[in-house]
């Protein structure tokens, strides 16, 4: 819920000041920047690091950046990362154990001391994914303390999308391109700067320090137009309007020949689960000291595409790619409803882009459901 619905305008010249204010408030700013041919999130100290005038072109199994004429900081769709690695670390120590002088084992829970993060440029699909991960790690009788602390300290500067890649389908997932989930500050980029909205009391405090003027009606109109344009660009969709019906259909077709068809193409590499902003599978391993006096118990990302993921009582339950892909897809858009009362897919399209062989989740769902994965633009 926003504190108020007043729109403010922030010129580009104030963007660096926003970073300074957040730094002075104790946050480490994390924002998008070009690295190794992709747009990734990393520590952002100066606005020069932002991907000015950069656009991404995404296809199944393809990702390429290009320079465009528009000198905008957020003219792209997304990169391989989301918010997930900031809150649910790819690898971290959960507890430590060591021997005391008498040889007794002493167990101690471990949690790193970390500076609060302000993420700059969070998109609607990734905020929707964060809300889903909140259900995984925070709800229930045993919330994860590491995730909980990072989540409570997180400051979100969200950005409405003005562009959709060929692999985006957040409209059909109901997660975008307009930001709907909780944020502290929301920005919509237009030619001369940003139309700003406050989403929390923390955001109100930060925005007040910028001393911004109210946005003009024409600036608000431009902002709304960019969001509508991003939505109109999307051509892919998740089949069936009622996603619970899709769940039931998938479980009624566990022996559909399409599962074998996709298994012939899938490499079981786990790329889709690594870039997915909602996947939460992990394994726990021991990292013993060489002296035999100490050890660290670590949690690290895992994937339902690995053989070890389904290893039970001396046997691998899902012993081929067909079973592993079926497990991933039926869980992602099916049994998530039973666990968390929501779909596990937010329509970001990362699993399509970063699949080495270009497997498209919307095409696979369309083949099994018998519906088209092509979205009809209602504005046409």
From TrEMBL:
Keyword Flavoprotein: no
PANTHER family: ANAEROBIC SULFITE REDUCTASE SUBUNIT A
KW Metal-binding (keyword) present: yes
Entries under SUPFAM superfamilies matching the protein: alpha-helical ferredoxin
Cited Gene3D superfamilies: Alpha-helical ferredoxin
Domain 4Fe-4S ferredoxin-type: 255-287, 336-364
Designated name of the protein: Anaerobic sulfite reductase subunit A
PROSITE patterns reported for this sequence: 4FE4S_FER_1 (PS00198), 4FE4S_FER_2 (PS51379), PROKAR_LIPOPROTEIN (PS51257)
Signal peptide: none
Organism listed in the record: Fluoribacter dumoffii
Top-rank lineage group of the source organism: Bacteria
Keyword annotations of the record: Iron, Iron-sulfur, Metal-binding
One of the record's GO molecular function terms: metal ion binding
Taxonomic path: Bacteria, Pseudomonadati, Pseudomonadota, Gammaproteobacteria, Legionellales
